[in-house]
Amino acid sequence: MKTLLLVDWQNNDYQNSDKAHSGAAVINGSYLLEQWRKKGFNVVHVLTDCVKIWKSNQWRKQRFKSESPIVDNTILREFTPLDDETLLWKPDRSAFFNTNLEETLTPGQQIYCTGAATTGCVLATAIHGDALGYEMHFVEDCIFDKDQQRHDRGMDILPKFGRVVHSKDIV
Fold first, then answer.
1. What is the pLDDT, as a whole number, of residue 50?
2. What are the percentages of helix, strand and coil residues in the chain, rounded to 5?
3. Pairing label, strands 135-144, 110-116
4. pLDDT confidence of residue 104
5. Is 85 in a helix, a strand, or coil?
6. pTM, entire model
7. Ordered DSSP codes for 48-79
């Protein structure tokens, strides 16, 4: 079975990124989601309560204070979960950490990861998913980071934990 894992398609990541870079990922990601749903494949949305995390972690508070980030948990409209899709809230970066994601998946299954941020939550999920034995795939044109340079650095690392694919190759 294949699962499309939608990681943090939320306003905070989008609003805090370079719109040329993240805008293309949103267009590609929403098209992939639409095609995935038409085929009846499994869809899992995993979101971060960034407001809670940033308010509770002193180190992050100090770090983000200088950046003045937009802190908004709102899901981007294009990625609104349907009633029959799994929606999980994660307490930190990895989609597997302290969530019941593993209970919604079968061992060794193919996971196609999209979302934000390449060097943050997507990378943490990649490392964790690979360690748990899942066949991880990273949809390069449906993943974004704060800017293109950070995304490119993350894309250099992700192949160590799975296969990098393009959305057009999997729809």
1. 74
2. 45, 25, 30
3. parallel
4. 95
5. coil
6. 0.92
7. E-HHHHHHH-HHHHHHHHHH------PBPGGG
